[in-house]
Amino acid sequence: xxxxxxxxxxxxxxxxxxxxxxxxxxxxxxxxxxxxxxxxxxxxxxxxxxxxxxxxxxxxxxxxxxxxxxxxxxxxxxxxxxxxxxxxxxxxxxxxxxxxxxxxxxxxxxxxxxxxxxxxxxxxxxxxxxxxxxxxxxxxxxxxxxxxxxxxxxxxxxxxxxxxxxxxxxxxxxxxxxxxxxxxxxxxxxxxxxxxxxxxxxxxxxxxxxxxxxxxxxxxxxxxxxxxxxxxxxxxxxxxxxxxxxxxxxxxxxxxxxxxxxxxxxxxxxxxxxxxxxxxxxxxxxxxxxxxxxxxxxxxxxxxxxxxxxxxxxxxxxxxxxxxxxxxxxxxxxxxxxxxxxxxxxxxxxxxxxxxxxxxxxxxxxxxxxxxxxxxxxxxxxxxxxxxxxxxxxxxxxxxxxxxxxxxxxxxxxxxxxxxxxxxxxxxxxxxxxxxxxxxxxxxxxxxxxxxxxx
Length: 455
Ligand SMILES: Cc1ncc(COP(=O)(O)O)c(C=O)c1O
Description:
The chain is α/β, with parallel strands linked by helices. Helices cover 37% and strands 16% of the residues. The chain folds into 2 domains: 7-64 and 343-454, Alpha-Beta Complex (Aspartate Aminotransferase, domain 1), CATH 3.90.1150.10; 70-341, Aspartate Aminotransferase, domain 2 (3-Layer(aba) Sandwich), CATH 3.40.640.
């Protein structure tokens, strides 16, 4: 589709752009990837090469696919009417989107707007701390997070990060964040039958060790994303909920990746019948058509910031400048309408099941595939050098598989710069519009790539 010469753009990029998560030395002798156009599930790079994007913009974001004119129209219409006003006031799309969103989240009630997943998580962390100071004499300030989970890039979010490669050398980190063990049964830490319950019990052990009167909240991904696409085992979430109730610990679910359809339900936690106190979301909320993130709470949490109006500190003393941009909720409203109109939750469930079946076939064929897992269109294949010992493959080899898929015109992902030695899980998160043919093309490319790299 894209065939103009944009070598001047590539030169400008090489000269001035500092790319995310990237060592730039190789660009002294090669060009960075520049993506110039997208339509549906495909993108085109600066050389005009077309790719099937099985990672929704690289980081599981573009849930409804590229080139959605109805979102662009909604955003344009809103921008020319009113592009911005600070979030201390309301806006038409902000109010309407909050109402639509809450309809999809029974039990939740209030939407706090900001503009990145990290920031949404920081809002929840601040609320937990403020509740601790107001209600618990400043004691219940600790926040638990899980090994392998990721919650963002700011210093406090990195302090709640279960992926060492993301926080190494960025210390000193923020105090008050405490790690609990991961729940990936494939790499089990306990030899028991009811693994889910056992992994959740490990949270109780940490609470008891720290002192229940010091722990205010636990922040968890419903399905761990960059830490290896980990679907918690049966029984895990029920037990987590019980533990939270027992020790008066608030439950914060980080839906930055899973939110708004990725796993086949509106939110990942809705597979498990749990009742969170905080839900944070970002990437899929407007599919990347505008920056928007939300920290959503129950009315009970909201009331804790309202019920003592005599206290000059008793409200959430926080602001996010770009939380007042109206493009975000305008895009999010249309994004949500598209998912409903086109039945994309149903498609996600059906295509996710189909893709998992196909990945199982890959596992039968290639010994290097040790485990396949996922929910909806959010899937992973963990590569191991030896199925018996489960020794991970060298990261370079996992990356080569990604490269070989790219050479066939299919972009897949691999966990990266997360867990030293364990960045070995291939990741798939195509747009929720993916068809069977798309899935066949993705898994077919992986099959060829695995053969090329491992024989
Ligand atoms: C689960 C999860 N939470 C939070 C974040 C941070 O979001 P952002 O990059 O928008 O700050 C990410 C980003 O990848 C994520 O995967």
